Amino acid sequence: MNLQRAFQRVYNVLLNSNVNTVAPVCGYTVRLKHTKEEINEHRAKVMAKGLPEKKPLPGVKSIILVASGKGGVGKTTTAVNLACAMKVIEPDKEIGLLDADVFGPSVPLMMNISGEPMLNDDNLIEPLLNYGVKCMSMGLLVSGENAVVWRGLMVMQALERLTRHVAWGPLDCLVVDTPPGTGDTHLSLAQNLPIDGAVVVTTPQSAALQVTKRGVNMFEKLKVPIVGMVENMSHAICSSCGTKNFVFGTDTQLTADQMGLEIIQSFEVDQNMSECINSGKPAIYALPDSTHAEKYRQLANKVFKYIENKENERAKAKE
Ligand SMILES: Nc1ncnc2c1ncn2[C@@H]1O[C@H](COP(=O)(O)OP(=O)(O)O)[C@@H](O)[C@H]1O
Ligand SMILES: [Mg+2]
């Protein structure tokens, strides 16, 4: 019998005996068995490590995520117009916009902000201000065309910098634009920040709706409530005859029903809107009389109402 088999035999015999600890082997005391209580205690300790405490951002009253499973569905367009519309309908409120898409930040382009942010006396980064909205993005901290490969821990560190190292306060609401998918960014944000709700953006294609479902399931698991669904690019209107063309399908309502969610706003495809946002002047400012601008103001109103309800619920829970 070789040595390894001999050891295995002794180990098996000890496992089936009442012997709990084997006295020093090469200077180490080997534990063979643990009681149920010890195992549960160990599990609780590991779990506690895995779920960091959700510390509020100093001076920030509420946080709303804008998310979706798929890229290119209009998350950033929605986040930018929503943040600006919130400022337009409640000018006395302080609104912030955090670009948490560290892989492909597009808030600087869409909000027309550039230049290196400054550090204040407390060593915090001062957000840049445009259209009355305080903005911060990784695109302002790493130079323009440098592709950055962010992975796991690096993403968390980048987010830590964009959240806790920025002088956000005072803010009534921080709108957070997120990257596509259900990855490290969403996990990290949901585990570290007290998020009041997520606005889920989708287009009507079945591929987009499927990924949206996955996103909604992820938020359920992370205990992030959903404010509602925003359907983007619902249909296109023919410029010559005015016919509605449902080029991407019509399944959004069905998906929303299946998930028990409300469609809180719906936007058609609009070339003007795209041109505005891509030239750094969101439709809410560039085309204030357009249907889209009006719909963004309605969306902003719904988000304010949602936040107010959450605040009331919190106050009641404290009583
Ligand atoms: N309703 C819309 N009509 C026309 N173009 C739109 C609409 N919504 C978004 N876009 C355009 O689609 C592109 C992708 O939008 P973006 O907001 O960057 O998507 P995401 O952040 O989900 O990747 C942008 O060029 C934007 O201008
Ligand atoms: Mg985006």
Question: Could you please describe the fold and organization of this structure?
Answer:
Pfam families: ParA. The chain is α/β, with parallel strands linked by helices and 319 residues long. The protein folds into 2 domains: 3-48, no CATH class; 63-318, 3-Layer(aba) Sandwich (Rossmann fold), CATH 3.40.50.300. Helices cover 43% and strands 18% of the residues. It contains 12 helices and 11 strands. Strands 3, 4, 5, 6, 7, 8, 9, 10 and 11 form a 9-stranded mixed beta sheet that branches. A two-stranded antiparallel sheet has the order 1-2. Helix 6 (152-164) packs across helix 7. The longest helix has 28 residues, at 291-318. The mean pLDDT is 88. Bound molecules: adenosine-5'-diphosphate (ADP) and magnesium ion (MG). Magnesium ion (MG) binds at residues 75-76, 101, 106. Residues 71-77, 106, 232-233, 267, 269-270, 273-274, 277-278 line the site of adenosine-5'-diphosphate.
Secondary-structure map:
Blueprint: H1 3-15, E1 21-25, E2 28-31, H2 36-50, E3 63-67, H3 75-89, E4 95-99, H4 107-110, E5 128-130, E6 133-137, H5 138-141, H6 152-164, E7 173-177, H7 184-192, E8 197-202, H8 206-221, E9 226-237, E10 244-245, H9 252-259, E11 263-269, H10 271-278, H11 283-286, H12 291-318
Parallel strand pairs: 3-7, 3-8, 4-6, 4-7, 8-9, 9-11
Antiparallel strand pairs: 1-2, 5-6, 9-10
Helix pairs in contact: 3-12, 6-7
Bound molecules: adenosine-5'-diphosphate and magnesium ion.
Residues 75-76, 101, 106 line the site of magnesium ion.
